[in-house]
């Protein structure tokens, strides 16, 4: 059990909180593996260069991540008063979400399970 008053515990927890601008997309209808292909291409790049990569990437996940990156840039400008030219992608990752399970009939009366995977995608920016 934690020691101290509840407000003190909350205060200590909030001091450790990450203040970098970020954006999160929950329940994206794309698998983690397919989202990570796109995220690996933009990790560590400046935001303008990353937007250019996402704009011409043919994968479906790139459209979702482009919209998410624009949201993170807007959060940085409005909430943290940061300049968009100085931003770069410090972290970007995808975690697995729930799986929709569907059943497809197959030969000889068998059932075949189809798993439609979802992911939670996070983009964290930082200033150079």
TrEMBL record:
InterPro entries for the chain: Ribosomal_uL22, Ribosomal_uL22_bac/chlpt-type, Ribosomal_uL22_bac/org-type, Ribosomal_uL22_CS, Ribosomal_uL22_sf
Q: Which UniProt keywords apply?
A: Ribonucleoprotein, Ribosomal protein, RNA-binding, rRNA-binding
Mind telling me which Gene3D superfamilies this protein's record contains? Ribosomal protein L22/L17
Highest taxon of the lineage: Bacteria
Please provide the Gene Ontology terms (biological process) for this protein: translation
Q: Which GO terms describe its cellular component?
A: cytosolic large ribosomal subunit
| Pfam families found in the cross-reference section | Ribosomal_L22
User: What GO molecular function annotations does the UniProt record carry, in alphabetical order?
Assistant: rRNA binding; structural constituent of ribosome
Q: Where is the sequence biased in composition, kind Basic and acidic residues?
A: 9-21
| HAMAP family, sorted | Ribosomal_uL22_B
Query: What does the UniProt function comment say about this protein?
Result: This protein binds specifically to 23S rRNA; its binding is stimulated by other ribosomal proteins, e.g. L4, L17, and L20. It is important during the early stages of 50S assembly. It makes multiple contacts with different domains of the 23S rRNA in the assembled 50S subunit and ribosome. This protein binds specifically to 23S rRNA; its binding is stimulated by other ribosomal proteins, e.g., L4, L17, and L20. It is important during the early stages of 50S assembly. It makes multiple contacts with different domains of the 23S rRNA in the assembled 50S subunit and ribosome.
Q: Which family does it belong to?
A: Belongs to the universal ribosomal protein uL22 family.
Q: What is this protein called?
A: Large ribosomal subunit protein uL22
Provide the species name.
Johnsonella ignava ATCC 51276
Whichever gene encodes this chain, its name is rplV
């Amino acid at each position: 059990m934690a020691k101290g008053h509840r407000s003190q515990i909350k205060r200590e927890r909030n001091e450790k909180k990450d203040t970098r601008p970020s954006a999160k997309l929950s329940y994206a209808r794309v698998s983690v593996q397919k989202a990570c292909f796109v995220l690996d291409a933009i990790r560590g790049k400046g935001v303008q260069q990353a937007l250019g990569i996402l704009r011409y990437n043919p994968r479906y996940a790139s459209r979702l991540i482009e919209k998410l990156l624009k949201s993170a840039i807007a959060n940085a400008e409005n909430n943290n008063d940061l300049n968009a030219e100085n931003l770069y992608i410090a972290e970007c990752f995808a975690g697995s979400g729930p799986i929709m399970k569907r059943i497809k009939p197959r030969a000889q009366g068998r059932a075949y399970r189809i798993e439609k995977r979802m992911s939670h995608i996070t983009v964290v920016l930082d200033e150079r």
